[in-house]
Design brief:
single chain; mainly alpha; Serine Threonine Protein Phosphatase 5, Tetratricopeptide repeat; 2 domains
Amino acid sequence: MKEMLLFLYMSLLTVVNSFAQQLNCSYYVNDSTMYRACQIYMDKCYTTAPKIYFQGSRASQLAMDSIIEICPYFSHAYYTKSIPYLKRGDFVHWKPLIDKAVMYDSISYLGYRAGARFMFLRDYEGALLDITRFERLQNSDIGYTYNGDYHLKEIKALCYKAMGDQRKAIETLDSYLTTHSYSLFGHYHLGILYLNNKETEKAILSFKKQLEIFDFAGAYYYLARTYKLLGNRDLSGKCFSIALQEYKNNNTMSRDFVYYPDKIYLHDINIEVSDD
């Protein structure tokens, strides 16, 4: 199961990463300015150009500036220039650039900005506004976040949760998971929502479903807490022990640059283990 999930995950990341970078410049043939900007972009974009243009380098940033000077409405240059600022936590410089990208190409970058607002800035209201607007514009599936970890419907649910509307969060996430087979962490978050709402049977089903798809320390930890709430110390103790081992094996929610919602730490597990 883990191997299948990894394959699906990496395939999805390939789609996400190539989406904004691999452009077909012939699409802009009727706009000579856009067409020229696109050609230069593909020559200087860090995924296709020589190493001097690696992401965030001076050469890359200057190349994006020159493209914007040629075509001030070429959205992809604003997007590419914004990425290093986001990764470095320089949101003051990131925001105006990504806003420009969204202004000139909402379909391509509204979902990206929504995911980044949620994961990096914890701007729940802004992320929710972006997703709602994107849903109105996009006739097909609104897709995943920039790194493929979450579908935007899942982010929408987590925004509701963070804003205090637990029931709306449950309804949104449950609706998505009912109709979509792929979800990296969706059942985990739904289980926590059910647990917080004292719906223990549904919480247990959600955590067990999560463990079938992708088993990691957090899922065992919250399953253990659910059993503990029900007074089943044998199962809670067993699951806390597994959570501790999985954590020590680095089987956790982990990715560079971002902090996952509902992520647990060794301290959380140790407190529960010591209480038992």
